[in-house]
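Here is one chain, start to finish.
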Amino acid sequence: MRLPVFSRPHAFLAAAGLLLAETLAPSAIALAADTAPHDQAHGQVVHLFWKKEEIYDHNRQTVTLTGGARAQRGDMTVDADTLVGYLRPKKQTGTSHAATNDSQKTGGSDDMELYRVEAFGHVHIYNLEDQGWGDHGLYDVDKSVLMMTGKAMKFTTPRQLMTARDLVEYHPQTHVSIGWGDATVTTSDGKRITADVMQAVELSDAQKAANKASQTTDGKKSKSGNLDRAYGWGHVMIRTDRQTATGDRGVYLAGPELARLIGHVRVTQGQNQNNGSQAIVNLRTGISHMLSGSSDPVQGLIVPNEAGK
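Its structure:
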């Protein structure tokens, strides 16, 4: 699987953008979104804040905010040492807009729109529940998608931690995070899932509400937090305090604590080991069901204990 190059991100980072509207203060800009039925992120106001300079580059059509800067849209916030906003001519809708003096001062006009924000240095993204850290970030304001790279990159949700070597991608609208390169999801109760590429999907708002109501009724708190499921591709490994299971690809369901692994599966518990084409692993009970493929039988190695049993 070919990993994406950060300097040329996914095709879904197409820009439709936001209208540069007005200057709120010497260190703040507000951006009002155009309306588009296909994009849930539209219709919200974006605020940009900075502490030092605002530099407008007419040739590159960028605005650079330095000294500690912030981009805020709804409950989603991006903080960094420096933010660079990318502008382009706005598609004409037949409605004439006169540029205000304030927008001219910031280097923008009602004919320009912001479609991307790039973050450099001590990048911190967060909303009411999730947050991530990295050295370099890219925010597509139209699709509401964020990407981060960095040496100590990590992303946290309630009761889960995701880390990755190459790239972390976050979709705040759907609460989906994807890690590229030695990606790991660790739950608060010690379960650890690693893969070359990992996609973690959080519970929907309806599922979260149902879980909260259930916890209020029975007094038990969900061990899985907000994680609904996680998919792994390439060198998948699932670890608990009792066993380790590996395979080429797999899926983990957080609610029932079940995992299914496919391809060159190996399940190890203590000195005992089973191999097969597929396996269903119950991480709650420690019981695994090995499944043979069309040509590969299940194989097992059982080591007796010291008593010979």
